[in-house]
Amino acid sequence: MGPGFRMGRRRGLVVGAAVGSAVARNSANKQAEAAAQAAAPQAQAPAPASDTDDQFAQLEKLGQLKAQGILTQEEFDAKKKQILGL
Length: 86
Fold this sequence. Notes:
The protein is mostly helical. It has helices at about 5-40, 50-65, 75-85.
């Protein structure tokens, strides 16, 4: 085992360390991005104003479900606010 063996072994260790650190850095970046996306509030877009006929139909259906006792007042109010974008 001569000096060439030691140089080859060192080169392998150096390359392995460089690859390992790059992989770790990439993994940390991906984890940070995922955490940032999870922390961002999920904004719900209100329904477009041009769909008033569709909104009206949905509200009628909700009213029927509430009258039949399928929906509670709280569920009705929450869904109504969602449909109206309030």
